[in-house]
């Protein structure tokens, strides 16, 4: 009987063994392996934003988020002392020191029925390692990539910022998000009791991919100088706001795009404004800087010469009965075409512009880019405002000749001068110089599109005329020792926050004999003076002087031979 019992038991055991090993073996092995598998998410680091010299304007750094499973914290057992009690308070006592938090307040955060709750975000790696070493139940430490902006508000309104998940929300962070963002990955492996990888065990992985890094045309030093000088002048003049654009006329590269009150991307919520660059989004009437287009048009059409003579009164009535006047009272002046531009005379400009038909006036504004976007690779660019000619509007058809009844951005206004300086060829402005992929390979951006607007002869003539503005006209405060400067002042009535205000500006080119830079300074509603030659030209001088030195551009090697301004 004992033999029979033993044989039966062994038969059952053998059958069970065959079932477990042969029939159900693969499924059981798979179930066991699944319990040993650990999954780790791999972060796809976001690419950097660099200035033209490789200075980091935005970068991602290694940080850690500490979270809690409140259901597991209850299982903590201390050593029985008052300093190490059981449960949430015991965990809080150990964790608070590392996280620099109050133990009682932290204990309150750990109590509840939630399986996931953040305790502290953005913890430094060293602190994260110390927290992990405590092996506290329910306390998790997860690696994240935190976005930081080392230079604070420098170019903040251009760069933009990201949300807590690293997704671009504004500025270049938004418009270039598809290439900047990395691709996350994962790793699955067999782990031991303490999470260590089992040698030779199952491993499955999908590597994370780092996003491409973008190199900008922006020069961080020139951007800083433009920003600091602009902010100082806005405060000194009581201006509502302002902007500075520094533009390489040969390549279309924007070296600086500064706006007053720039946002610090590290703390975007602290800013009263948005992060869009007002240099490309806000529009205003350019005023007398727009006279450059009128002069370009009549020269290109062969209707006048730089030395034609004009009798210029303080007020002037056009054929349809509209009366225009200059910025200040004066007797009758005897000015050449160059003198009209140098003295920024509205009445003289209207007489000269009368040689253009109404359609020609608007056509030339369109040719120079008014009413259309420049195509710069910055989010939120405005096209400005240029209405179609309206013969029922008796004033606008004349006012456009001296920069009124049309609205532009600071970048559009600067582009006009850059076009003239570049021999009459417009180069599309851009801020992206090239991209570097995860392997370190740099690929330059395609050359910017180029369009001829006026002949080289007209451009050279107009440049000489604009030198008179600085040498013997309203822009004398823009003069830079050792360099020939061409430019134009501007003063225009504008609406600022729903109230009538003034926009004062100066836009210039340097060196005038071998043009490299176009620089604009725009101030909205200055209180100390309404004239661009007084409040904007000095800022142009200081910004341009710094940029010339920074870029190593040699002083002018020739003397100017200017046209007469009077007769």
UniProtKB/TrEMBL annotation:
Region annotation Disordered: residue ranges?
191-211, 259-278
Keyword Membrane included in the entry's annotation: yes
Q: Give the matching SUPFAM superfamilies.
A: beta-lactamase/transpeptidase-like (SSF56601), Penicillin binding protein dimerisation domain (SSF56519)
Q: Which GO terms describe its biological process?
A: cell wall organization
Q: Would the keyword Lipoprotein turn up in this protein's UniProt record?
A: no
Q: Which residues form the Penicillin-binding protein transpeptidase domain?
A: 242-543
Ranges of compositional bias, category Low complexity? 269-278
Question: Superkingdom of the source?
Answer: Bacteria
Q: Which stretches make up the Penicillin-binding protein dimerisation domain?
A: 44-198
Gene Ontology CC annotation, any one: plasma membrane
The cellular location(s) given in this protein's UniProt record come to: Membrane
Q: Please give one Pfam family short name.
A: Transpeptidase
Which keywords appear in this protein's UniProt record, sorted alphabetically?
Membrane
Gene Ontology MF terms in the entry: penicillin binding
Family assignment? Belongs to the transpeptidase family.
- Write down the PANTHER family for this protein, in alphabetical order: PEPTIDOGLYCAN D,D-TRANSPEPTIDASE (PTHR30627), PEPTIDOGLYCAN D,D-TRANSPEPTIDASE FTSI (PTHR30627:SF1)
| Protein name stated in the entry | Penicillin-binding protein transpeptidase
């Amino acid at each position: 009987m004992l033999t029979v019992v033993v044989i039966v038991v062994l038969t059952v055991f053998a059958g069970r063994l065959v079932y477990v090993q042969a029939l159900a073996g693969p499924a059981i092995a798979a179930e066991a392996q699944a319990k040993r598998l650990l999954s780790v998410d791999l972060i796809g680091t976001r690419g950097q934003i660099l200035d033209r010299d490789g200075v980091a304007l935005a970068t991602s750094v290694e940080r850690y988020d500490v979270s809690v499973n409140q259901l597991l914290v209850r299982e903590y057992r201390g050593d029985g002392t008052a300093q190490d009690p059981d449960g949430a308070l015991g965990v809080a006592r150990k964790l608070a020191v590392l996280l620099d938090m109050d133990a009682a307040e932290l204990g309150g955060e750990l109590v509840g029925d939630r399986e996931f709750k953040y305790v502290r975000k953005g913890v430094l790696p060293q602190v994260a390692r110390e927290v992990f070493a405590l092996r506290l139940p329910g306390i998790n430490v997860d690696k994240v990539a935190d976005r930081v902006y080392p230079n604070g508000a420098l170019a903040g309104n251009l760069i933009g910022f990201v949300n807590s998940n690293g997704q671009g929300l504004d500025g270049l962070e938004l418009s270039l998000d598809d290439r900047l963002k990395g691709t996350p990955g994962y790793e699955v492996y067999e782990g031991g009791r303490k999470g260590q990888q089992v040698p030779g065990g199952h491993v499955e992985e999908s590597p994370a991919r780092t996003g491409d890094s973008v190199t900008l045309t922006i020069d961080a030093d020139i951007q800083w100088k433009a920003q600091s000088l602009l902010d100082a002048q806005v405060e000194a003049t009581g201006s509502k706001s302002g902007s500075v654009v520094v533009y390489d006329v040969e390549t279309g590269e924007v070296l600086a795009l500064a706006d007053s009150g720039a946002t610090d991307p590290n703390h975007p919520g602290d800013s009263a404004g948005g992060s869009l660059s007002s240099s490309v989004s806000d529009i205003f009437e350019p005023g007398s800087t727009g006279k450059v287009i009128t002069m370009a048009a009549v020269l290109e059409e062969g209707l006048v010469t730089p030395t034609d003579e004009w009798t210029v009164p303080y007020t002037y009535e056009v054929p349809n009965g509209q009366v225009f006047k200059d910025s200040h009272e004066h007797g009758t002046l005897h000015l050449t075409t160059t003198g009209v531009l140098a003295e920024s005379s509205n009445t003289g400009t209207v007489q000269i512009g009368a040689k253009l038909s109404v359609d020609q006036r608007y056509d030339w504004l369109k040719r120079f880019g008014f009413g259309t976007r420049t195509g710069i690779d910055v989010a939120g660019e405005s096209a400005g405002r240029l209405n179609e000619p309206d013969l029922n509007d008796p004033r606008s058809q004349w006012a456009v000749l001296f920069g009124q009844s049309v609205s532009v951005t600071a970048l559009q206004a600067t582009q006009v001068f850059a076009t003239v300086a570049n021999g009459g060829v417009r180069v599309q402005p851009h801020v992206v110089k090239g991209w570097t992929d995860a392997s370190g390979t740099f690929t330059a951006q395609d050359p910017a599109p180029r369009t001829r607007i006026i002949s080289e002869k007209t451009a050279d003539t107009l440049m000489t005329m604009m030198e008179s503005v600085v040498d013997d006209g309203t822009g004398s405060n823009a003069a830079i020792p050792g360099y020939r400067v061409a430019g134009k002042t501007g003063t225009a009535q504008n609406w600022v926050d729903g109230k009538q205000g003034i926009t004062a500006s100066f836009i210039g080119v340097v060196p005038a004999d071998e043009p490299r830079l176009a620089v604009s300074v725009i101030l909205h509603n200055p209180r100390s003076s309404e004239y661009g030659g007084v409040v904007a030209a000095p800022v142009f001088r200081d910004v341009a002087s710094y940029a010339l030195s920074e870029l190593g551009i040699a002083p002018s090697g020739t003397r100017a031979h200017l046209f007469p301004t009077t007769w």
